[in-house]
Amino acid sequence: VIPSRTSTWAALVPTAAAFELSDQQLMQALREREQRALEQIIVRYGDALARAATCQLGDPLLADEVVQETMIGAWDGARRTRMDTPLRSWLFAILFNQCRKCARSRARRLARGGGHAPAIAVAGEPADPRLERLRCALATLDDEHRAVVVLRFLEDFEIAETARILAIPPGTVKSRTHYALLELRARLGEPP
Amino acid sequence: MSDDAFIATLRSELIDLSSRAATPSATVIVRRLRRRAALRTCAATAAALLALMLLARSNPTYSSPSPIAAIPGSLPAWRISMRYELQERTEIPIPVETSATSGELTAWFLRLRVDSSTHPLDSEGYL
């Protein structure tokens, strides 16, 4: 028997404020369609997801859209996911799937002559030359290599977790990391 | 520059670069979910009505081309319960019991609104 959402949330929250709930408790509440669990997950991981999507896509507006899709995907997919799935890496796996979809549709739009090229710099704001260099260097990496850089060095995921998120073997994460760092060094004028 | 130093610089610059990311709004995401759930309910309701109309059309007592349908008095129980269910859910009388015209049905479709601001988030579109 699935407990009602009210009783589940009521059982979880009186003993701790919502922000004190563990990821596993939030996952359980999300599986039981508890809106407050979704809101708490957005508070807890929304910023990190938005940062990663911004670096991956190079466009804060697209990143915002992708984060929304990620949360909707999490809401839809929670019941199909094992209870012991780590919430954080599961969210990042959804995020990077959404990023891939988004990149594909952006490429189609660009091929048709519409849309716009990725640019983190917001119009009207002076771009920091140091960050502009990094942005250009990241843009030269392909999506797979950039994803590894974002997960390993922005979000500090271990190799095994990065491999699970991207659904690739750990050896591939290592080799992508190696080649991505070589490429970034070359682009940023830092000899190995 | 050593690998460690390069990676340390890279980490710090990635953080700066990503600082332009917008903070996601829970309100916006919940509103999107509600709107989607409301649309699903709306679509399911319309589909159920169409099913009712098709059932009525397949009835041999149907004769006039202009009125859409007239469900006869001897309705099977499940058809009756479907109509009551639809009516209860939408709070809009459904004009299929008597000889509803296409205009009446169009009007019913136009009145078929689901309030997305209060719609349950977890609706799968089932009535």
- Shape of chain A from CA axes? globular
- Helices and strands of chain B, in N-to-C order? HHEHEH
Major sheet of chain B, described briefly?
Answer: 2 strands, antiparallel
- Strand content of chain A is under 5%
Gyration radius of chain A (Cα, Å) is 19 Å
* Total count of helical runs of at least 4 residues of chain B: 4
Largest sheet of chain A: none
Helices and strands of chain A, in order, run as HHHHHHHHH
Radius of gyration of chain B (Å): 26 Å
What is the tally of helical segments of chain A? Answer: 9
- Per the principal axes of the C-alpha atoms, what is the gross shape of chain B? rod-shaped
- N- and C-termini, Cα separation of chain B: 64 Å
Number of strand segments of chain B: 2
Which tags fit this structure?
heterodimer; A: 192 residues; mainly alpha; 69% helix; globular; B: 127 residues; two-stranded antiparallel ribbon; 2 strands
Walk me through this protein's architecture.
The complex is a heterodimer of chains A (192) and B (127). By secondary structure, chain A is mainly α. Chain A contains nine helices and no strands. In chain A, 38% of the residues are buried. Mean pLDDT of chain A is 86; it is low at 120-124. The longest helix of chain B is centred in the first third of the chain and has 32 residues, at 26-57. Chain B is mostly helical and 127 residues long. Chain B has a two-stranded antiparallel sheet with strand order 1-2. Chains A and B meet through helix 3, helix 4, helix 6, helix 7 and helix 9 of A and helix 1 and helix 2 of B.
